[in-house]
Amino acid sequence: MSKLKIGDQAPKIKAIDQNGSTITLDQYRGKKVVLYFYPKDMTSGCTAQACNLSDNYSDLISKGYDVIGVSCDSVKRHQKFIEKYNLPFNLISDEDKKVVNDYGVWQLKKFMGREYMGIVRTTFIIDENGKIEDVISKVNTKEHYSQIS
Question: What pTM did the predictor assign?
Fold first, then answer.
């Protein structure tokens, strides 16, 4: 799966969120970050995952976490996704695929006999100092919160 492992320094991020604002991982220093990579806004699995994290967001915040989602969807699509499901966290638009490549989640996938490049659903838990504390590669989209806490 990803070449990054527990104890590694998380790769730096400088990307655009759903509002067109620049997001950096350094902005989250002092907090734990749930950095989750997902294939596509508005799809059933990605919606289940985002809503599960949203439903448990206040609990995550109370435990010192913040949440950032990352996909290759556009800023406009992220805005619609957030509005439709009232998501309380930032979504990074990685259309140039820099972040997904830096984190090693842009990989060859297979579906119904077809091969294509795409995001392999993966979550990185990053500690207050920017080090990877956990890597969740077998994400349960409907119960993702329970895999974190």
Answer: 0.95
- Coil, strand, or helix at residue 19? coil
Cα–Cα dist 144/8, whole Å = 22
Active site includes 72? Answer: no
- Buried b / exposed e over 56-77, threshold 16 CB at 10 Å, is bbeebeeeebbbbbbbbbebeb
Decide: residue 108, CB within 10 A, 0-12 exposed, 13-18 middle, 19+ buried. exposed
Q: d(Cα 118, Cα 100) in Å, to the nearest integer?
A: 9
The residue from 46, 72, 87, 148 that is catalytic is: 46
The model's pLDDT over 39-57, given as tens digits with 9 standing for 90+, comes to: 999 999 999 999 999 999 9
Q: Which domains does the chain have, with CATH numbers?
A: 14-148 (3.40.30.10)
Give the DSSP H/E element, type plus range, for residue 110: strand 106-111
